[in-house]
């Protein structure tokens, strides 16, 4: 089943059921995605029936336009972002000549993100260029209710939906913020999620061990920048990431957990880039770390006005699963905010 | 105007208008507090009319029982907690023989807290004793919509409600978590808010410069433990704390911002305690820091099974403004979670 939220109605938008091929949508009786998640046992059958109708009858529904979409949850009660691809962390540490603590391999890194006001999958990123504007292409899941102490296995069973996310990151603000000791805040502005969220069964064999075993495709200004496999080198699966939340508290239906920047282990700067046969990168910071490791300083600039990042995932037959996130950076309009 | 949320209806409870003296309540047409905040311009007049009726007619309404209350927002889209009383930070640093960075006096400390599932003002805290269970008594505000780049003055105008909060903290989990660099996560479980949230005008002259100029009273197992004035030594007011959020993104209606542990500048361990004429402390960590500074190590234990913390604020006439938070620690039931 594929679900989207249209920019209609109130702050939470209007839930839409989208055909498997992303060509058409129909409006269910349930108004918002959060309402469906709040009572999933009741909701899923009714949504699935409409989804099956849409797929069976090519004449049913209205044309689906990802440009009319909010993030599936325009605002959420929880957005917790992990950093499960330790290759990314290893590169960060190597670039600054420090070791990865042993605990990082059994205790997930996770930060609490702002979830009150996401941007949409086709919205602009408003920021100042001196903030070091970067993207982070990730996979994310939406869970049902989990009680304090839930195990990774219980948490895996509670995964309701899978999405993609561009976790916009302001690299220039991170060092001062982390030095304060309280974690990310201003350096992690509003994230953008894929036009469509899908139930895990839509992924077929690609959904195994609470991971998505498909390449995540990142395009920067029209050029393929990365396509690492999200199922590889993921040290903690989504069940484990969700269970990290529930060690000390409940997690309520609609909790979104991110995988962290997808990153596959590769060799060197030359061999890791797409043009030289590597799988590339899911954020600018990663290629800048390779550059720092090999030449002492980064070369690739962060994003500037007009730069466009796209994030999507294709199935084994080349079909777009989630729709494409397309975020353009706007640093000029930003001045109106000041 | 005073508002509460009863443990009735769905996940968001049932909004109630409470009489000024906290004796009675009536149910407005608007069902939940988030609905009221989403459309505050429309809602506030209708809620205020009911509030005025309740106060004018002592026979109107039902008996109000804080034990039937959720936190005013049982789940929220944002809970961002500042650390605006720098005396607390200065003591932390002094206890570990380090300096407070100069930037801390002009750039607020703030972490993103989990907001999907708060506990109620009279609910138990489920935790393991070895986690170092502590309370943090704070003031918090709920804001309306703020655009990216909002100034402290604009943010101050958008403050809709004031509450108290017990920001439960697990001190034993903090060092390892902060060492990972991503900030608090498991060490900050679900917070509890006061039974009642009030509009700033209810505070009269005590609401000045976006601060609450009244003592915050903390009682531990029936003994007064602290009553520092929340209007004193607050380096950043609530307008400034809200504006910290909006530097890089919007903040949506219903955003909750906390002050951090209220802490007044005092002299030494002896003079700071309530029994020796000081104003005491709003968390156990603070007296433990005085102990560490003076004797090399902390003496006061953290909370254990059955310990009860109460947080409240009285007006100039001794009337309870927000109702009392009463949280008991339960470490035995915790084992059922494991």
From TrEMBL, chains A, B:
**Residue stretches making up the Fumarylacetoacetase-like C-terminal domain:** 79-329
Superkingdom classification of source: Bacteria
Q: Name one GO molecular function term.
A: catalytic activity
Q: Where is the Fumarylacetoacetase N-terminal domain?
A: 1-75
| InterPro entries referenced in this protein's UniProt entry, alphabetically | FAA_hydro_N (IPR041072), Fumarylacetoacetase-like_C (IPR011234), Fumarylacetoacetase_C_sf (IPR036663)
Pfam families assigned: FAA_hydro_N_2, FAA_hydrolase
SUPFAM superfamilies per the record? FAH
Q: Which PANTHER family match?
A: BLL6422 PROTEIN, FUMARYLACETOACETATE HYDROLASE
- Name recorded for this polypeptide: 2-keto-4-pentenoate hydratase
User: Which taxonomic lineage does the organism of this UniProt entry have?
Assistant: Bacteria, Pseudomonadati, Pseudomonadota, Betaproteobacteria, Neisseriales
